[in-house]
Design brief:
alpha+beta, 4 helices, about 15% helix, OB fold (Dihydrolipoamide Acetyltransferase, E2P), about 210 residues, globular
Amino acid sequence: MRRLATTFVLLALVSCEEEPAPVPATAEVRGKPIASAPSPAIDPKSLPTEVRALTGATGVNLAADAPPTTTPKEIEGYREVKFELLTSYDYEWSQTTGIVAPGSKGSQIPPEVRALDKQKVFVVGYMQPIDFDSAGVKTFLLTNYPGGCCFGMVPRLNEWVEVTLAGDERVDYSYFDAIAIYGAFQVGEAKSGEVVTSLYRMTPDKVELADAR
């Protein structure tokens, strides 16, 4: 049943494949993706001398000249993990059958992502409800884009975290507002038979609006 519900959610995300209706000029455009994979850095030494001289004269810094990535943010002992890292690799998986591509050997999840397993982290994203009732949402997918903003593309398996609240806990549904989930992160292929159903999971200690941090 959980797998069926997840399938419905993914189909709903793809439903925007049809041409969208025009947006009125006065409508507020919302739903910007939280993070995306960075563009490859340019090695300044590979550029012509004229271009390097121009960047020096104008003060424009190249990506390769940028300072190293800062230390991940930490809140109350939870380390921040961004979708930029979670989606930084290709996972060979059939979007129609849910089965791992033939010939794949071992886990396709890179070591730096596998190292997050069982770690206390927090992730910011958008809620796509799976299991809910009048009291609120019990299970949802956390994605790096709000509902309806996938532009007809089927989400990759490493583009969501399956979130299940403990016991009878529920949270209010949040559509456009980004939320933060805090808890022990689970990394690894969860399967139903041969079908891979998720790579990332969490039973959160806390769920809150990202703006509340």
